[in-house]
Design goal:
The chain is an alpha+beta fold. It contains 2 helices and 4 strands, in the order E-H-E-E-H-E. Strands 2-3-1-4 form a 4-stranded antiparallel beta sheet, with helices on one face. The protein starts with a strand and ends in a 7-residue tail after the last strand.
Length: about 90
């Protein structure tokens, strides 16, 4: 039985406050990203749900390299393993 995994990560992105909406739009254009919250001071919470860890690090790099992003922090990373065949299929 094959095992698959999902990586759930959360990031805090610090943005120049005057560019908050612009940067949020750029982040949301990236696959598998959600923004559940932000603050007027330029802090953005980003949640990623991906199939591998490489995507997480690549996305952090992409976000960190956006213009007007000051820094990006990984604050949570969990790996969930599950069988690709559900119990109903057995």
């Amino acid at each position: 039985m094959a095992q698959e995994e999902v990586h759930i990560s959360s990031l805090v992105v610090h943005v120049k406050p005057e560019y908050l909406e612009e940067v949020k739009a750029q982040i949301l254009e990236m696959p598998n990203t959600e923004i559940p919250g932000d603050s007027p001071e330029g802090k953005v919470i980003v949640v990623l749900e991906t199939e591998n860890q490489g995507y997480v690090t690549d996305t952090i790099d992409k976000i960190n390299n956006l213009e007007h992003v000051l820094i990006t922090f990984l604050v949570y990373h969990q790996i969930e393993h599950f069988d690709s065949q559900s119990e109903d299929d057995s």
